[in-house]
Specification:
Elements lengths: L2 H26 L4 E4 L3 H23 L12 H25 L8 E3 L16 H16 L8 H25 L1 H9 L14
Antiparallel strand pairs: 1-2
């Protein structure tokens, strides 16, 4: 896979994710937030993630500034990265579909918020974060550069580590025992592996 092809793959993925996110931002715009827990820390983490997921890769793709940090991987890694990218985009889209009007980019509980336990949420509690991890892996495989190839994994890690506990606490505060039971039967970002005795 040529460098140009890899950059085109990234840009197609970038456009697809932006289109999904913009569509759902418009969809939920009128759905009132009744419990907003956005902090300065979360805003900073969102900005950091934006830099790693979008800004640095776009600068790297459209300018020669980061060429000194390029690395070589076998051609097949670009194709594997493309497949992982497709899975990440599908999971990102499916997560939004399943959440519907419950979705929010920030730590918010919306009016008439329900606990979604169907679709991909039947298996994992945070499929959107799983999609982001897959995106980070795909980005490293598709865009061969130490700076903008790895920028998303590096920038997303603090968001994941600091935000997940806050998000789970918000859900516990809102849904109580129902969410506790949901935690017991689902994985956080990887489906829970059940033993034969659990089936």
């Amino acid at each position: 896979m040529s460098e140009v092809t890899r950059k085109v793959v990234f840009l197609i993925g970038f456009i697809a994710v932006c289109a999904i996110r913009v569509h759902f931002m418009q969809l939920v715009k009128q759905n009132k937030v009744v419990d907003g827990r956005t902090t300065a820390q979360e805003k900073f983490l969102l900005i950091l993630t934006f830099f790693g997921m979008f800004l640095l890769p776009l600068v790297g793709i459209f300018t020669p500034w980061f060429e000194f940090a390029s690395y070589d991987l076998p051609d097949w890694t670009g194709w594997v990265g493309t497949v992982v990218f497709m899975v990440a985009i599908w999971l990102f889209w499916r997560s939004h579909i399943d959440l519907g009007l419950n979705w929010s980019a920030s730590l918010d509980i919306r009016e008439n918020h329900t606990l979604v336990e169907s679709g991909v949420y039947k298996y994992i509690r945070h499929p959107m974060y799983a999609a982001f991890w897959l995106w980070g892996i795909a980005q490293a495989l598709v865009v061969h550069n130490w700076i903008y190839g790895l920028s998303y994994i590096v920038s997303f890690l603090p968001m994941y580590l600091l935000r997940i506990p806050q998000e789970e606490q918000m859900m516990l505060d809102t849904f109580g025992e129902q969410y506790q039971e949901y935690i017991a039967r689902t994985g956080r970002v990887i489906p829970m592996i059940k033993s034969a005795s659990d089936l």
